[in-house]
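Issue: copy button drops trailing tokens. Both records pasted manually instead:
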Amino acid sequence: MNQRELKERIKNDPALTASEKVQKLNELRMPYKAMTDEELLQLVRDFTEENGREPMQADVLYDRELKARFGPWNRMLERAGTRPVAQSYLDKKRRRKEKRERHKEYRRQIREQEAAEAERTATETAETAGCAERAMQAGTAE
């Protein structure tokens, strides 16, 4: 019996309650939690080699562990090397990087403008204070 059939048998067993089904499935998944990332990816590669196709989530007991560690199913398959990285994903990643760089430059320019404005305000305040002081000295001298 393969993992898919075992999983289906537990899910469709009328003698088990919902919590018992979850408990049985979690017990079967426990050994996979202790495996390293590379070992899990190797299991995916082995499945692909044995069956001539990529695994679906229903095919393996450790699907939740794969999703938890590697994110979306397609990214996990790409990471395992069973599927080439999608060009749309690479394009999206490149656009995000470019946007971050543009925004970083924009924030730098805003900081420079704010610093220049603060310096200009400080200079004007100092000049105004100097004029007022001279006027008061001139007023007290008379």
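Record 2 (pasted manually too):
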Amino acid sequence: MKSINFMGDNGFKKALESVGVTASSSISSEKISGCFKYVTADDMRIITGYCGDSHIEVLELPFELRGKKVIAVAGGAFAHLYDLKCAVISKDIVIIGRKAFYKCCSLVNVTIPESVRFIGEMAFCGCESLRFATIPDGVERILPFTFYNCDSLERADLPESVREIGESAFGFCSSMKEICLNENIVSIGNGAFQNCISLRELEIPAAIAENAFTFCSGLEAISIPFGIEAVGDYAFFGCSALKKVEFAGSVRKIGECAFALCEKLESVYLPDSVSRIGKRAFAQNTVVKTVRISGKIAYVGSEAFRGCKALREVVIPSSVKKLGAKAFVDCSELRSVVIQHGADGIAEDAFESGAALITADAVPALDDETFRIAEAVYNKNFAL
């Protein structure tokens, strides 16, 4: 007899503990019933593998094996069944282990019963024919890489119980058009929706990690609600169809390259809560015409708006304590730069080779000292 440690995966072991299989439980040696391999833990069966026809197309998991209830599918149990098209998971199963259906490339339909409370990492990773996924109520976490590279996945239905979406959980799901992220979600991991190129609109309820939506090239509009304080580095990098971003008044930080290469973004209106704009945060957004930098911004990173070639005017508020090197470099249509009195830490090359022309007419109330033009704009590339 073996202990629960035999199962290897810590997440899987913890899930087993939730149904009464603990470290003190004994696990039998592996046996075979029909085409299923299994072990027994405290009078309950755990399917550990499949030994039937490797070209099987329809697989229905049993409720019982030799008179004992099946409660779990162990890690890798059905991995690499390349011809499998349909899988029905029996209604009493609570746990689906890591890589349980890994690279079942032909899998189109999978029925996950309401009894399931845990789905392991990479459980359906590489199931490139899978079209829909419905996660049962009670599952709290979509673990890293769970549906990674499911190329045909069009929709994933997540219940209210889900609170976390792990790293790359839906990464490279290039056909995904729709996903509803409930308001209970508190964490979206790195690259969670990276390269989901068919997503069009999204309401984001949780903290936005690095690379969360990188290269979602079909995404046209996003809404960032109140409660989110930071947009992670590269979060929306390369979202080339993005036209509209709505920020609530709680965002404090825009990360490095967070919205870089969003080639259709026409305007940037940052709420007064924002105090920091990261390096290259909005770089190479070539059609941006309007940028509103909030009156509480303290830090604008280097190259933050580099290559925003359609940008015509910008006001640097008095709250700014650092305007980084080349912050507005290659903004070839920039005509008006207004730097409010009190702004400080402006790099000498902040506007290098930027504005085609800056005129005194563009600076209101210049002689009452409400505004000033920083020394930076007296660069050799500017005409005044």
